[in-house]
Automatic annotation (TrEMBL):
Homodimer. It catalyses: AMP + diphosphate = 5-phospho-alpha-D-ribose 1-diphosphate + adenine. InterPro entries: Adenine_PRTase (IPR050120), PRTase-like (IPR029057), PRTase_dom (IPR000836). Keywords: Cytoplasm, Glycosyltransferase, Purine salvage, Transferase. Its main location: cytoplasm. This is adenine phosphoribosyltransferase. It is found in: Cytoplasm. Pathway: Purine metabolism; AMP biosynthesis via salvage pathway; AMP from adenine: step 1/1. It comes from Origma solitaria. GO terms for biological process: purine ribonucleoside salvage. CDD domains: PRTases_typeI (cd06223). SUPFAM superfamilies: PRTase-like. It comes from the Eukaryota.
Amino acid sequence: FHAQCSSCLQSPRMDLCHVPATREKGWYLALMAPNVKGPNYAWLDPSRLYCHPQAFQDCVADLLQPFQGDAIDMVAGIDAMGFILGSAAAATLRKGFLAIRKAGHLCVQTAAQPYSDYSGREKVMEVRTDAISPGEVVPLWGRLPVWYPGTHPQPLPPPGLCILLVDQWVETGGTMRAAIELVERLGGVVAAPLCVPAGVAAICIENSEGGKWIQERYKCSHCVPPRLQPRFDQHQ
């Protein structure tokens, strides 16, 4: 894998027809292109693997595998690269797709959330308010009504939509955490004890402070094999 990774990253062109005989999880990571423009850019460009048809399909399949059988009502992708993986995941799951946009692009009523991205720049994301709201899905079977002695039983309010949040990469975790807060503020469920959780998916979730915070609290999926995680954490 390491030899394949080195040769692919150094190659200026990519063979879109080549598929390895053994497609282990993460084989397509070798197709990502390195940063050649300096520190103002991300250290890798994952979008190169989207050009390879089998790599793209396998990447999406690997991201969704941990969520097989989970109750996912909608997929949300984060502007902009999360739109690619998110829409592909939504199409695979046959679910709707919600775009979480950078502020200033939606002409409808929105909710906004400030955040700091991986470079430390202060930004604002927004999402339309009519796509996520509590009470849009039927309560899970087996949930008991709320009841106190001397009162009539009251049914529990139904949970919000279960949302699978998708982005290309989680480095510091600031962008994804803001998206989680935004979705949950509108009544969506990213993870909750009374609901089957959806979760968070990205090609890589780094073991940064923010990345660990997300992984400790939400069901997560990414494509980096454990043996390669330290290299990705150190941007090597």
